[in-house]
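Extended Data, panel c. Modelled sequence:
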Amino acid sequence: MSLRQNWEAPLLILAHDALNELVKPTLPASQLYNHKLLEASYQLCAEITAEHSRSFYMASGLYPPDKRRAARALYAFCRITDDIVDEADENEGPERVSERLEAWRQRSLSPNPPRDDLVAVAWHDARTRYHVPEKYGEQLFDGVMSDLHKRRYETFDELAEYAYGVASTVGLMSMHITGFVGKEAIPYAVKLGVALQLTNILRDVAEDWRNGRVYLPKDELRAFGLDEDDLARGVVTNRWRAFMQFQITRNRRLYQEASPGIGLLARDGRFAIAAAAELYMGILDDIRDNDYDVFSRRAYVSTAEKLGRLPKVWWRSRS
């Protein structure tokens, strides 16, 4: 199958539109909240990050302190957004979930978030401090909202559009926290976001199936002689191996094509972003080493392996 990429142009339009949107005047959080409240808000975000993503917690720890706090506020903001949909009660209808998601959208993107919503307070401080375009947050909500009504994807182009909404937007917001040289960094951030989300999808095939979702492109499954019955059986066959090898080859290519963007970031943030990408690529190695069996166990990278990868990442990020 071809690895041509026809999906990029419309996603770049979305990214540039958000960047070019006029910034609404917003008071800095330091004028809205006292120091003690801000410290408590950032501490909660750090705890949420540590609990839910050891890889991101480790990677964000490579930032200078102020950027580290902002990156973890971004993670917590995204984590809550995802969880509203992913952890919704099975008896709760999509309309009710949509209402809760919209309420969180209003609080988290408000120019004056309520003082008792600590993650919203921390994210307000981070996004105003680093001039994160609000439109990227809106696009994230639109992407997450799509999970309420779209559970299958016919082509990779469709999947890439979804990945932009739920992952590239996060990368673009992170890019503002890290610092970047100019608009030429945008295509790399978009591509890295798609790469990261595709890794999530390949790792979580079994979990997504149990939750009634299939993110693997249907036309690509058919091309390898597979269908949803194969996902239900969860048996590694030669056809499944070939399919996963194709997926991982494309995924690695996306990481490789995104990597020059690291050099367009601020020096004090390059290591953190490079480490995040490297640690996620380690998940692909684990899938391969486990004979492409993503049904019986969730692929992961051990703490020792993560630490072993960092010196090489540090050296590459310096150059």
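The radius of gyration is 19 Å. This feature is highlighted in the accompanying rendering.
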